[in-house]
Amino acid sequence: MSEERYTNRLIHEASLYLRQHARNPVDWYPWGEEAFERARREDKPILLSIGYSACHWCHVMERESFENEEIARVMNEHFVNIKVDREERPDLDAIYMSAVQAMTGQGGWPLTVFLTPEGIPFYGGTYFPPVDRHGLPAFPRVLRAVAEAYRTRRQEIEKVGREVLDHLRAMNAWRSSDRDVTPELLEAAYRALTEQFDATYGGFGRAPKFPAPMVLEFLLRMYLRTGEADALKMVDHTLTRMARGGIYDHLGGGFHRYATDAQWLIPHFEKMLYDNALLAHAYLAAYHLTRNPLYREVVEETLHYVLREMTDPQGGFYATQDAESEGEEGRFYLWTPEEIRAVLGEREGEIVCRYFGVTEWGNFEGKNVLSVPRDPEVIARLEGLTVSELEAIVRRARRALWENREQRAKPARDEKILAAWNGLMLRSLARAAVVLERGEFYHAARRNAEFLLTVLRRDGALWHMFADGVAKIPAYQDDYACVIDGLLALYEADFDPRWFRGALALTDAMLERFWDTERGGLFYTSAEHTDVLVRVKEAFDHATPSGNAVAAEVFLRLYHFTGEATYWERAQAILRLFADPMRHHPYGFGRLLCALDLALAPAQEIALVGDPEAPTTRAMRRVLSERYLPHAVIAFRRIGDEEAPRLIPLLRGREPLRESDGRPAPCTAYVCQNFTCHQPVTRADELERLLPPMPSAMA
User: Fold this and answer.
1) Are the CB atoms for 75 and 47 separated by under 8 Å?
2) 3-171 is classed in which CATH architecture?
């Protein structure tokens, strides 16, 4: 049989995930009117399959079922088959994932949903095996049962569909809390999180265990707010265990998607841009607060991984790297003792195997995921080495093993560029450039911002995705919010008004396209997205932060920059809208809890006026960059610059103080707290005294 015989419509799609299914014998359609028109014309149900290119079990189901001619024949005979990339169409994924969770109590990818020709879901699940296995029904049996039910029990199916649709609409009919949001909500959320915390291995809950960077940053905020030492201990324990676990790539840097166990040892091997952006930011915040060198190392290695492996020549960042290579999960990352000794020699090979927990029997299918299961001090003592001698050996070994690993077949890379994920990485790079004083991070952030504001913006509007040289799909609300957030972070890194101007313009566009004028909050889709069953309001954080949560924090930051009450009111509306679920499910609201913390904090508005190259200016900027100030906004005006104060009201009326000889001071700092200002100062030590005190444990 020729490969051409099975080429289907997906061959013309920009999505790598869809093109990966273009040679299946399944008669796949992309999402669109052509598929729905055929379903209505032939009165057939729709089989909707949603996944993404880095998803291991998506590939498994493809190999087992979608490449199986007999199973494909059943699919083609009884259904109109639609394949969707969840990263390309997160709006569809959110709707149909919620439907399957409502019907079955669980969700995940690959997502398999059966729809009426009108797109209404009536049955679904996730992965189905080709034969009955592990309590899961065989996919062919499911297909025949659904097809038979559609033919013979239509009224029942339509009833289920109406109930599911009603449920989806009710899920998104959020109602504002009657109570004001107060610090008590933060304290209740903190108490609930302490009960979910895994004191043994760090993190929250049991296996599988996902990083929770937004929750960790909330705990850092609570430590600043209350001085509660346990909040910082939870963060430190989690970050340390993850950094030493197999979820972290000890040779190439960066994090895998999640751990399949509670110990952070065995990862699900795909690498996602958003995980690495969010975790780099969380480790950076923890480093900023504690100066723990391990955290700095993780931030630098993670960001260098992104710059090395995930950066487009135009400045955008790619979406994912696959879990598989050469058809095997994790193959690229696994080692045997023999392989390590072949690279390093017998003596150093044995030391490094002990350091990384590599054994003859392995920890994953007979091979080894690298981790650091014991403290280096213990390994050094066992090997008769000093800690510095061990560190030198490990440093050389990591380089040699990485160079050897580079000769292996690499996991596939999905080179689509997504606006929201790029906004997350832009924020992390911009903040790291300031805190770590690393020029390469700043230059990467600037190139990314230029890419986002030119290639992914047209006529004032953002586009969701760039692939194969084309920007496509009108942006979703989280695309806007995350890009705005990244632009504001970059503005505070170099004070180029272009980034602030871009943030303001995109904020106006976001409000115009997504704001719910009746109940408050932001819809996930705009009126341009006409092919969705319901307009979802994104409330919970999932793997990425909720678009509403990012927007709330963006509005608060813009309020402190501009004094515009509208921004404050929009943020308060979002906080009230989700106050009750935030109280009851704090793990799902880490980023919104950070926004609430900012809304309730004694926030600082800091304006600098002076010569950007003056030593005093640099000293003041260093004072600010060395302090963890999540409640501060910082603006800068060159002496004589008239544009900056027009753009940023925080700078209006801010003139340099005069020295005793009548000349303007090299730099003058105006420090305000919720718009009540101290006397301006002209020295770095004076500025430092005006900043909020650190908790006693960190002072």
Assistant:
1) yes
2) 3-Layer(aba) Sandwich (3.40)
